[in-house]
């Protein structure tokens, strides 16, 4: 579809120009994986920060240990907040191939 859009001389959205695999959510999605969240942090840090703050507000308001991402290390799965994940992004210690399972455009 991107090729067809180029043939028609249609402009690409910022998300495609920035390298996101789709433009259904502006780069942030609860179904996105670690690679997409890392890309969002690197390209749109303000948006990442908004989602990080909103996630923490939700956790506090509902008094629940929940998060958008999951830490699957060590054979167990536990919630990994965007704040915790930001620390992994900064050290490069995350799954750079896990883009998630977004099906919004399907």
Give a description of the structure:
With about 110 residues, the protein is mostly helical. It has a domain at about 25-90. Helix content is about 45%, strand content about 5%. It is built from 5 helices and 2 strands, in the order ααααββα. It has helices at about 1-5, 15, 35-45, 45-60, 80-90, and strands spanning about 70, 80. It has a two-stranded antiparallel ribbon. The longest helix has 18 residues, at about 45-60. The chain is elongated and about 50 Å long. The mean pLDDT is about 90.
Write the layout of secondary structure elements.
Blueprint: H1 2-7, H2 14-17, H3 34-43, H4 45-62, E1 69-71, E2 78-80, H5 82-91
Antiparallel strand pairs: 1-2
Helix pairs in contact: 3-4, 3-5
Oligomer state of the chains in this structure: single chain
Sheet-strand content, in percent, reads: 5-15%
| Largest sheet data | 2 strands, antiparallel
Order of helices and strands: HHHHEEH
The amount of helix comes to 40-55%
Strand order of the largest sheet: 1-2
Number of helices: 5
Query: Low-confidence stretches at least 5 residues in length (pLDDT < 50)?
Result: none
Mean pLDDT across every amino acid position: 89
Query: In terms of structural class, how would the helical and strand content be classed?
Result: mainly alpha
Instruction: State the end-to-end distance.
Output: 14 Å
Shape: elongated
Using the CA coordinates, give the radius of gyration: 15 Å
Number of strands: 2
């Amino acid at each position: 579809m991107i090729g067809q859009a180029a043939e028609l001389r249609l402009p690409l959205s910022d998300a495609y120009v920035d390298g996101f695999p789709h433009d259904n959510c502006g780069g942030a999605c609860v179904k996105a994986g670690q690679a997409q969240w890392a890309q969002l942090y690197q390209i749109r840090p303000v948006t990442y920060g908004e989602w990080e703050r909103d996630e923490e507000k939700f956790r506090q308001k509902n008094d629940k240990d929940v998060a958008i991402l999951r830490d699957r290390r060590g054979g167990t799965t536990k919630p990994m907040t965007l704040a915790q994940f930001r620390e992994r992004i900064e050290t490069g210690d995350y799954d750079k191939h896990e883009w998630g399972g977004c099906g919004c455009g399907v």
